[in-house]
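To the wet lab folks,

You asked to see what we're planning to order before we commit. Fair enough. Below is the target structure as tokens, and below that is the sequence we designed to fit it. If anything looks off to you, flag it before the synthesis order goes out.
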């Protein structure tokens, strides 16, 4: 019998009918299909193969490939399902860094969105930093900016102020992305696509004026994609995300994904403690003493309540 050769590569794009793969960091694209059913035991998803997945494929005579195996994911980010089924859509897998792009004005990113994304990153062990974009527009709201930066630094997160207009800290973002697969996330309009295009002017990701956002179709299918950038590394844009989902996080566990709560919760009188009504709760005490920000605690309570609804 003829020996079939196999190869290993990373999925860089799902075209709808095919998967494009490349053996990163090489950029040498092979077109693959999936034969039969690929099963992963960990989660039920609407997409069995995600961008960032490392796969093994058989090389065909015509140069295309047939994916036959997905290697275990070191991490992944899922999109909140639109219905109450437990089906999730994996946005990307095996991410080295997530950059959460936010703006405080035009549009203002809700703290609830930010905290939910940060919790998702903690839960799936994705390193994350916050990019505060459009800093060129922030001179009138410098107090708000300072409060934001200190809110997240006290929670344990780095915020980098960036402007695609003045170029502030663009080189820093380039160096952050070197040698990594970096996921750019954030609500529509914060400038994710503009920022990626600024990192590499040969990329032409679609950007839109804020006034055009209402034209966005509700049910357009988005295919995420890995792009190489000229300064080194690979980036993934995530347009059209309304929320990130968490699977199977129980209420007693949620506080473990707030780094500033994780630091003190060992001192709660009861274990497990939901940090809501229990006497002798170290988290509530830290909130009262101003060590944990009330905004973050409010997000925590909001998420507890929301998760509770779905069980
Ligand atoms: P996305 O939905 O997050 O991908 O946002 P886009 O990249 O489409 O950008 C939305 C709008 O914000 C566009 O009009 C961009 O020109 C604008 N924008 C992006 N970055 C900046 C920035 O640093 N400063 C300013 N003033 N506007 C920006
Ligand atoms: Zn407690």
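Sequence we intend to order:
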């Amino acid at each position: 019998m003829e020996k079939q050769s196999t190869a290993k590569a990373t999925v860089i794009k799902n075209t709808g009918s095919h998967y494009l793969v490349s053996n990163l960091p090489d950029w040498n694209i092979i077109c693959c299909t999936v034969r039969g059913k690929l099963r992963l035991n960990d989660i039920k998803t609407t997409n069995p193969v995600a961008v960032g997945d490392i796969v093994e494929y058989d090389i065909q005579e015509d140069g295309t490939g047939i994916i036959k195996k997905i290697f275990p994911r070191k991490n992944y980010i899922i999109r909140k399902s639109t219905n109450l089924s437990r089906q999730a859509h994996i946005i990307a897998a095996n991410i080295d860094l997530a950059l959460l792009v936010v703006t405080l004005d035009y549009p203002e990113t809700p703290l609830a969105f930010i905290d939910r994304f940060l919790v998702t990153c903690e839960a799936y062990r994705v390193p994350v930093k916050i990019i505060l974009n459009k800093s060129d527009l922030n001179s009138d709201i410098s107090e708000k900016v300072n409060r934001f930066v200190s809110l997240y630094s006290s929670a344990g997160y780095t915020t980098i102020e960036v402007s695609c207009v003045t170029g502030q800290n663009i080189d820093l973002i380039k160096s952050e992305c070197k040698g990594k697969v970096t996921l750019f996330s954030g609500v529509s309009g914060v400038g994710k696509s503009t920022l990626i295009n600024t990192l590499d002017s040969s990329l032409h990701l679609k950007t839109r004026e804020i006034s055009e956002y209402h034209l966005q179709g509700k049910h357009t299918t988005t295919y995420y994609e890995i792009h190489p950038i000229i300064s080194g590394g690979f980036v993934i844009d995530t347009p059209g995300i309304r929320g990130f989902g968490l699977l199977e996080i129980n209420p007693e566990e949620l506080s473990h994904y707030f780094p500033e709560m994780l630091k003190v919760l060992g001192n709660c009188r009861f274990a497990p403690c939901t940090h809501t009504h229990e006497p002798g709760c170290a988290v509530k005490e830290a909130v009262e003493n101003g060590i944990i920000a009330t905004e973050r605690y409010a997000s925590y309570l909001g998420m507890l309540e929301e998760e509770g609804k779905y069980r």
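Structural context that might help your review: The pocket of guanosine-5'-diphosphate (ligand 1) is lined by residues 133-134, 136-137, 163-165, 186, 188-194, 207-210, 239 (CB under 6 Å). DSSP finds eight helices and 13 strands in the chain.

Thanks,
Computational group
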